[in-house]
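During the second half of the funding period, the structural biology subgroup turned its attention to how the target accommodates small molecules. The most pressing case was S-adenosyl-L-homocysteine, which had performed well in the primary screen but for which no bound structure existed. We therefore specified the complex as follows and requested a full 3D prediction, including the ligand pose.
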Amino acid sequence: MRESLHDVSLVELEARIEALGHPAYRARQVWQWAYRHAASSYDEMANIPASLRAQLAETLPFTDLTPVTNLTSDDGLTRKRLIRLHDGKLIESVLMLYDPRSDSRGRATVCVSSQAGCAMGCVFCATGQAGFERNLTTGEILAQIVGFAREQADTGAQPITNIVFMGMGEPMANYRAVWQAVETLTNAEGADMAARHITISTVGHIPGILKLADESLQVGLAVSLHAPDEELRERLIPTAHRFPLPDIIAACREYIAKTNRRITFEYCLMDGVNDSPAQGRALAALLSGINCHVNLIPVNPTPNDATPGAAIRRPARARTLAFQRELASKGIPCTVRVEKGVEISAACGQLRGKAEPSLIQLASL
Ligand code: SAH
Ligand code: SF4
């Protein structure tokens, strides 16, 4: 596949533009259009000579992403998008806005996909149920964000402030492309995002956690645990034996020792599976002494009845709160994730799962 504008670094763009016979400073201008102004085509780049725009459109086109479906939640604060890639694969991205009345600073978070599908196979996850297709390129990751940034700019709305790699796929299994996207997002000449406002979520990919610990950018780490013991974890995540729980915890301790940063642990609560008070106590024991925050996520039931995850349900509110109390009583900071976009299937891979049988039906919603 041809490289796209969003695939290259600023240094590489300079080299490309010089090779096309133009001065290197043009690269900085193009870069600013791409990431400060979230341009959607070279035509918009008014201060770039038409000859260079034409050459770039030919040799380094814009990333080919086609929005297929857009859904907005009832309160208008969550926008979810199903996107078709150049080879027909489908991915999802979500924009989550926060009510300015409850968060005066204003925040707009994009949840990006890093892969089409996922090889980890988590039984409760719609993406995992559908299997792995391929890694996304850096350009495909960035174009998801640029698309939302552009819409926000066009309407004078809150600019994008945060990125979470919590869409489809396991970002650590596509580290190189993900990391280049992070470097582009934090580049001061372009989007200039704070690294601390970017979070990578992993199912516990140990080499990825250790690699992240050595990076100089202060990107946040979230680790999805879902079980306090290895046996249950391997039932929920069939590939989990590759990264045993004690080794994940050891890698997390190493990450904290090196970076001095707090880790978020994600724990998807499933009724009668991993949500008992005893399991809460076991989780608290596992995390004791670790600088962390636990995010409890009541599971979103997946739509596909034929899968092993079909019988998985979210616990009653009282049971969720009892689990939270077990952690809190052991001094582990813990919140229950605010539900965003449940009615538009905002959880990982769910829109695609619904959309594949009947795109037209969804498009008319
Ligand atoms: N692969 C990475 C990042 C993408 S998944 C990871 O697993 O961490 C991001 C988060 O979505 C994970 O914490 C996962 O547990 C959660 N998730 C997946 N399916 C879900 C569902 N059906 N309901 C609620 N959360 C879900
Ligand atoms: Fe992959 Fe994360 Fe879904 Fe598990 S929860 S299948 S690791 S995307």
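Two results from this model are relevant to the next phase. The first helix runs from residue 10 to 19. The chain is about 35% helix and 20% strand.
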